[in-house]
Design a protein that fits this description.
Its EC number is 1.1.2.3. It is an enzyme of class 1 (oxidoreductase). GO terms for molecular function: heme binding; L-lactate dehydrogenase (cytochrome) activity; metal ion binding. This protein is α/β, with parallel strands linked by helices and 510 residues long. 33% of the residues lie in helices and 16% in strands. The protein has two domains: 121 residues, Flavocytochrome B2, Chain A, domain 1 (Roll), CATH 3.10.120; 303 residues, TIM Barrel (Alpha-Beta Barrel). The N and C termini lie far apart (76 Å). The longest helix has 22 residues.
Length: 510
């Protein structure tokens, strides 16, 4: 690079552990001639590191990685990485920006690493010349996005899902759409609604209706919420921020995944004043990390916790695994033995940190850290609803994780029906709030659950698909479609407000 050329370099500030602090510093890169491979330091103390030096650090004993021109020493982080050490080692000593950005939020490293682990910035004069070559899948996606239909032509959630299939990358689609094993739990989630039929009432004035409700005491314009789902950036560069903005515009509540591709700080910054957010918590094997997370969401003003309990280990998500979203590497699988397949896929880059020994008594530990209301997410039988009540939980989310965990797990609408038959007192007495998710795609699906006693219904994949296909506009379109379908169906059922929905308005067909 000729002398006299200046470059703008992003520097990660010393306060990175508390939250990503990035500022811009103008650095003279060629003030003095230097020998090849020689690192330099700016007057402010920022190291400029030759790319050749980065390439030397590729082992467990010394592992460096580069993301967006920033170089980090991740040697001590290898065993703490949620996806395991092997994924990082596979990309050590090189520019890992592309794979990093497809999985993690912009501030992932900065919020988990110590300030001293940020070594400096790469010397741009030493970067190898790399010709960008589009893959076959990238070419396909680019063409599909040019031809995507106008969003106003989408009349139901299945229409949006079809367009998402066209425009999402193979990796993104496979992660979102993947199911456990045979896919039977996923298929059952969809099919289960055909077992429940309405018993409408007629000759009732239904011109004016009210769909508003409260969830954990929080006002919502509709009896739906964003069920927490990970990795929204696989569909759109803004990730969960689009969903936050869309939820705010429509007045519904958003659940934030522990594995969101935006940090909680980024999402909190994107919300509107007073906008409620609920945090979905996976308990880390290192309980200190979970304690820090709980304190952080308290500080950020989150309104509740959805404690996910149906994923002590990850299910076998075959579509995701076959997409080869990450290098296929050997590691300890769920049997405790060494294996290859379960280390493949996006999901397995996220789930290695879960505490598989979590138990009901651990709720006391969580309550010692936060006073936020706790909803148990992933309840799949009446007995566990009863335990949640016994342990003083604010609610339960009946869910089989979208059919992504245990194959042949029951559909949430069926668990709700069984709860209605066996413990109507829990539902009618509002002893705790009961929510459902998994397979809901229509306003009629929502109303069936509400008739049986659910407080509200969560939607996960539909928001990921909509964000991937149309961004924030797609998120709002999902809510608009559901609003219209719920309003129409309420009128045809003969009700004007949610409290008028009763169990006798639904019958289960054999």
């Amino acid at each position: 690079m000729p002398q006299g050329i200046w470059a703008e370099v992003l520097i990660v500030g010393a306060a990175a552990v508390a939250g990503t602090v990035i500022f811009s510093q103008r650095v003279h890169l060629d003030a003095k001639p230097r020998a090849k491979g020689q690192a330099q330091t700016t007057p402010s103390g920022v190291r400029i590191i030759p790319y050749e030096e980065l390439q030397k650090h590729t082992t467990r004993e010394s592992c460096w990685i580069m993301v967006k021109d920033q170089i980090f020493d991740v040697t001590d982080f290898l065993d703490l990485h949620p996806g395991g050490a092997a994924v990082i080692l596979k990309n050590a000593g090189q520019d890992a920006t592309k794979i990093y950005e497809s999985i993690h939020s912009a501030g992932f490293f900065e919020t988990l690493l110590k300030p001293e682990q940020h070594l400096g910035v790469v010397d741009p004069a030493t970067l190898p010349q790399v010709e960008a070559v589009q893959t076959e899948d990238e070419i396909r996606v680019e063409q599909a996005r040019k031809n995507i239909p106008n969003i106003n032509l989408m009349i139901n959630l299945n229409d949006i899902e079809e367009e998402a299939h066209s425009v999402l990358s193979k990796i993104g689609w496979s992660y979102y759409r993947s199911t456990a094993d045979t896919g039977s739990a996923f298929d059952s989630n969809i099919a289960a609604f055909s077992r429940y039929w309405f018993r409408p009432r007629v000759l009732r004035p239904v011109r004016d209706i009210d769909m508003s409700t409260t969830i954990l005491g929080i006002p919502s314009t509709m009896p739906i919420f964003v069920s927490p789902a990970a990795m929204a950036k696989l569909g759109h560069p803004l990730g969960e921020i689009n969903i936050t903005r869309g939820a705010a515009a429509c007045g519904i509540i958003q659940g934030i995944s522990s594995n969101a591709s935006c940090t909680v700080d980024e999402i909190a910054d994107a919300r509107q004043p007073g906008q409620p957010l609920i945090f979905q918590l996976y308990v880390n094997k290192d309980h200190k990390i979970t304690e820090d997370t709980l304190r952080k969401i308290d500080k950020l003003g989150f309104k509740g916790i959805m404690l996910t309990v149906d994923a002590p280990v990850l299910g076998k998500r075959e579509l995701d695994m076959k997409a080869r979203g990450l290098p296929v590497i050997r590691g300890t699988n769920n049997s405790g033995a060494q294996g290859t397949a379960l280390r493949a896929g996006v999901a397995n880059s996220l789930g290695g940190y879960f505490d598989a020994n979590l138990k009901w008594d651990d709720l006391a530990w969580i309550r010692s850290i936060t006073s936020l209301p706790i909803v148990i997410k992933g309840v799949q039988c009446v007995e566990d609803v009863e335990l949640a009540l016994e342990y003083g939980c604010a609610g339960v989310l009946l869910s089989n994780h979208g059919g992504r965990q245990l194959d042949y797990a029951p559909a949430s609408i069926d668990v709700l029906y069984e709860l209605r038959q066996r413990r109507p007192d829990i539902l009618d007495g509002k002893k705790l709030e009961v929510y459902c998710d998994g397979g809901f795609r229509r306003g009629t699906d929502v109303l069936k659950a509400l008739c049986l006693g659910a407080t509200a219904v969560g939607f996960g994949r539909p928001f990921l698909f909509a964000n991937g296909a149309y961004g924030e506009e797609g998120v709002r379109k999902v809510i608009e479609i559901l609003e219209e379908e719920i309003a129409t169906s309420m009128r045809l059922l003969g009700v004007t407000k949610l409290s008028e929905l009763k169990p006798e308005m639904v019958t289960r067909m054999a």
